[in-house]
Prior knowledge:
With 176 residues, the chain is α+β, with helices and mostly antiparallel strands. The protein has helices spanning 39-48, 104-119, 123-131, and strands at 11-13, 19-24, 63-69, 72-77, 83-87, 154-160, 166-172. Strands 1-2-3-4-5 form a five-stranded antiparallel beta sheet, with helices on one face. A hairpin with a 5-residue loop joins strand 6 and strand 7 (166-172).
Amino acid sequence: GRDLQAGGGWLGISEAGRLAVVTNIRDPDGPDPEKRSRGALVGEWLIDGIMPEGDGLAHYNPFNLLLHGPDGTLLLSNRPEPQRTPLSPGIHGLSNGHPAEPWPRRTAAERALADWIAAGEGEDALFAMLRDEQLRDDMGAPIFINAPVYGTRCSTLVLVDGAGHGRIIERSFDAG
């Protein structure tokens, strides 16, 4: 995916073994047009291995950024204050809230992913789970949001095996 205003991306993987995923954190005041595109974080990591540090995180609108490389996996966020958290192996979800904030849809998706892994099913079953409008969190919100203005627009799988071979598969949805 591409940021239509600044050209950045929300997810990517490089041949150097780097992966980046960014989500925006909801801000009641909306994005600050004076700040850099969060999508630039993805490109800088994938192309040059550049990771924002310290005060550099404040130059972006609120975000969560998952970075994976040869040295491990990190979660960076700049709200409520800059943080850098190493992640252990396992299932970790991103949301549009602060990483420590309870986010029921993220928890429901993590459970569904764990069930998919345990069942050993193929990617079609994972896509079906991601498209299931009946899979809901504890508050009744669906994982897949089918709405004309704000909603799920794609589901993307990044599959990498132990030898480093991978595939990216995406299914897109229109506003209908």
